[in-house]
Amino acid sequence: MGRGVLVLAGRIVRQLVRDKRTFALIFVVPAVIMTLLYFLMPDEVKPVKVGVVNHDTGVSVPAPAVKQKGIWQSPPAPTVKKELGKEVVKALRERENLKVEEIREDDASSRLREGSLDAVLFIPANFSVATLKEKKGEVELCLEGTVPGTVALTRREVQEGVMTFFARMSGQAVKLPLRVKTTYKYGGEDFGTLDYFAPGFIGGFVFFFVFLLTSVSFLRERSSGTMERLLASPVSRMEVVLGYLLGFCLFAIIQSVVIIFFSVYVLDIKFLGRVTDIAVVVFLLTLGAVNLGIFLSFFARTELQVVQFIPLVVVPQFLIGGVIWPVETLIEPLQWLARLLPMTYAIEALRRIMLKGFSLAEVVPQLLFLVGFAILMVVLATFNLRREQA
Amino acid sequence: MVACLVEVRGAVKNFGSFAALRGLNLDIEEGETYGLLGPNGSGKTTLIRAMAGVLRLDGGEIRIFGKKVPSREVAARVGYMTQAPALYEDLTVRENITFFARLYGLREKVAERVEEVMELVYLADKADRPVRTLSGGMKQRTNLACALVHRPRLVLLDEPTVGVDPRLRQGLWEYFHRLNREGTTLLISTHVMDEAERCGRIAFLQEGTVLAVGTPAELKEAAGAATIEEAFLYFDRRRGGGDDG
Fold this sequence. Notes:
heterodimer, A: alpha/beta, five-stranded mixed β-sheet, two-stranded antiparallel ribbon, 15 helices, 7 strands, elongated, B: alpha/beta, Rossmann fold, 8 helices, globular
């Protein structure tokens, strides 16, 4: 009996060593994924970007130096202009995790919308007056609000920055009843992690399943000999590729509609955009996934080898394409890499549509990239099909 | 001179260092049942795939109906039956045949034509069975039906009787002859020597070239042989080949 075990084990080792690709994958893929994860978990926190709209006009207060000496009084008491708004900005600038930028009020809304700022702090015109004279100063922090981690970090950092300012002023024996009023441009207090992840999951699932289904069924088409029959028929290669596309797009769109309805009505996920807009993005992502599947299926002989493409093609897109971690929080080289992946653009578009209620016209750059990727993949797939003939 | 239905001129095809076709010439006339006879590796399948437009030649050319292949126009009027059944296992017999009918551009009376073909290959009672539940012989008949459903003028059959039981083989040949009587030109490859007797004309293939062409009787007579097999060996020896003894 012992001998039989060895014979079998020996055969398995021999087969595995002979299947060079499986052999390589066993060792290469863990290294690739681990490297990605290593860079995905950076030690330092990325600073959040805060814009400040400072309207504070300042206030004139009696110069304290004069009062203290009190030897002789000058008839018009000398005054000092205090601008507490500037003090707040200064305190915020000192914080490592904040990248502070003074902006005009007109730009605030659009900067939050396009995502180039995570929050805007409004300091009202009467801030100094209200704080020093009426003792009820108030600043307003308006958060972009769709990225849960960023929201928490921004709130904490701004609060602490304001506290620093407060402490400094208190040192000068000024009682400061100061309030930070928080508002959200998108999302809100009840906005949860799942709300943020839903668009990512739609993109991720659609891509994963469409890619897997297409590459496996295209592989079957080749291994069962039906591809040979298709090529012998009067149907052109481009028609074969486009036919596959149409068939799978239908399924992908139905799939994402189901995900959307399930998310919205069962899981009660916040959802602003229109379903038809989401369907358009999903359709374009599917185009790319179908053709990538067809293209890569030429490099596989068995279904196992197709499955082996998943850690190479799908997992990195999940990790750095924004499904889980926002692309902006990645280290720079990974951000460049992410900019080459269709997933990044699809999720960016989905997130804007679903979380911020963008229309299709506002995600045109993302859509264009998806179209470009799809066209490139159609060309590559057709080219491979042409080679099939030789 | 009447133009041939199929003209193969100096066909060359290499797979890496292996020369599958070495300047092969062949003519098939309309209405023939033409047999390609040769051992495995002699180039039968390569030649048929090139005719079907699936394979690009490295040299020479093939004309079918006077047009150079690959051509979509030609493809529409050629039927191609692959060696192994090329079917969608999850679909039923009827769905498979209908798919190929539509693929070849059949528009009218598709359902009737599909029924008709299923009757021809005795599969009408299996019409709604998924292909994966069929026996090897039934699959092969479905495969044949898929190749014939669009009423091709020329049918290319790559070893249609390999792995088929004697009764089905008999049935297939009867069907081939009937098709031929109805005016369809057939090209049938085989490595079973006695099957070649059933063809009108045959070509002996060896190492990518044609050894000899003629009716079975002519070939046997020229070789002074009693069987097709002996005739093949005679021509093969004369060429100086036969290194596998």
